[in-house]
Amino acid sequence: MFSDLLTQYVATAHARQLALADLIGERDWQLDLTAGQVTFGDDLSFPIQLLGTESHLDGTWLWAWANEQSGLPRQLLALSSWMREFGVRQGVTELTDATFPLDRADGHRLALVASGLTGRCYYRGPYDGGAVFFHLEGVPDQPVAPERAFTVVNQVLMGYPVEHRAMVTAFLSQQGWRVASEDGLVTGVHPSGSEMRVEFDGQGRISNLTGQLRR
């Protein structure tokens, strides 16, 4: 199910987005489909792969592989086509249906899942009447610092409908923490010695998040 993929990958993908925001800051963006590149400001440029578009006129998502009317360069559709193939293999209809309402899955959630599956960050480029989503190639991917891991967990909890325990366990494992799990508790120990302790209530929701940072 799509919700399971989101739970598994959303935190690590969200951390990539925070790192991208640190990198590009307030720079303007410009997309060149002919060159297959996005430029931020005057000094940052990255190859891209198109994911799809949101229409704010009818509230729908359209995958790039299905956008035949726009005449998009085929070489920029490799990622979205791979997502479709993955969806076919796994039976995830949000990845195989060409278009659907945003309240089923919006561009951010789809791009976060794609980020988790491919290791790339993404950018949302707004335009009049909608937004284009694309993944960036060649952006340095660094492990999430322990102090930021706490921020990521809190922001994901506030922003996305995920299963709390599975999200935390997946995130810490993906980031190289040593994870231990027992009834009502998940603990993680970072290679630096930093610790995270996550307690859960009877419904599996996070009830307490504490830890200790080591530098």
Descriptive report:
Strand 3 and strand 4 form a beta hairpin. It is built from 5 helices and 11 strands. The longest helix is centred in the first third of the chain and has 23 residues, at 2-24. The model has no long low-confidence stretch (mean pLDDT 94). The radius of gyration is 18 Å and the shape is globular. The chain starts with a helix and ends with a strand. Strands 1, 2, 3, 4, 5, 6 and 7 form a 7-stranded antiparallel β-sheet that branches. Strands 8-9-10-11 form a 4-stranded antiparallel β-sheet, with helices on one face. The protein has 215 residues and is α+β, with helices and mostly antiparallel strands. It folds into 2 domains: 2-136, no CATH class; 146-212, 2-Layer Sandwich (SHC Adaptor Protein). InterPro entries: DUF6882.
**What spatial form do the alpha-carbon principal axes imply?**
globular
What is the count of helical runs?
5
- Major β-sheet profile: 7 strands, antiparallel
- Spell the H/E element sequence: HEEEEHEHEEHHEEEE
| SS strand fraction | 25-35%
The whole-angstrom Rg is 18 Å
Q: Tell me roughly what share of residues is in helical segments.
A: 25-40%
> How many separate structural domains?
2
Number of strands: 11
Could you list the spans in which at least 5 consecutive residues all have pLDDT below 50?
Answer: none
Query: Which class of secondary structure composition applies to the elements?
Result: alpha+beta
Average predicted confidence as pLDDT: 94
| Distance from first to last alpha carbon | 39 Å
